[in-house]
Specification:
Blueprint: H1 2-5, H2 11-25, E1 40-44, E2 50-53, E3 59-60, H3 75-85, H4 90-98, H5 102-119, H6 121-129, H7 137-155, E4 169-172, E5 177-180, E6 186-188, H8 204-212, H9 217-224, H10 228-244, H11 248-254
Antiparallel strand pairs: 1-2, 2-3, 4-5, 5-6
Helix pairs in contact: 3-4, 3-5, 4-5, 5-6, 7-8, 10-11
Amino acid sequence: MIYELVPTELHDELKAFCHDLENTTLQHIEACPFCGKDSFYLIRSKPINTYRCKACYKYFTVATNTPFNRLTPFNWLELIFTNRIKNKSYLFIAEEILESSPEKVMRRDHAIIDYLQTHYPLLHKWYINHKQATLTPTLAEQHQTINAKITALLNQQTPICSYCASTDTTKVGSRTCYRCKRCRRSFNLLSDTPLNRLPRPELWIEFINLLVAKKNNQQIEKKLHLNCNTVSRWRAIWCDMMKKWNCEALAIWCSRH
């Protein structure tokens, strides 16, 4: 999933960095970080594997000479990295995923940034600025899909009746409610979706565009003259709807960060 959130031209660096994280998590070491020799032996395994080089006689771990030194457990690094790409906050990662403190998450994220800066400069530049609204092709396509679906829903004139399948229907009001002229029953195209009863349909597309542009709740409140509770509720509803419409990458992009 994170590959859909990262620009295509950075996928090689992303793949290489994920490989580095995997090696760190598995504590896979190929050579001494001090002299580069591959002749070493394990001297203890707790709390992490510690080795001694037969050539230079120095002690080391998988994280020696890296920003990840002493930042155990190492499997946290990949979790933090992927969730930060998904724009999850330090607080969310700490409380909902790792059951730790935001300070520990922040420290590890800063270590990730330092490592990227040294080894993967292009990915580093994107990672520290990715909250800017730079859409990947996948996100741009899903954005168009969502807007097209909204437009189609709000502009249908004679949809098929949900009860008798007749096409002899007429719109009632300005939303997505219709009445069948054959069976005389009313139906709503959104009755089984999170959008049911969501007000102000004339603002829906503009709201989506603001989410995609990475505007925060306060900016959206000011732009659309909505209150803070409404914006928070709309964001949650629309992210849920994006997932139902198979636009999960866009839902992640638009979730609050």
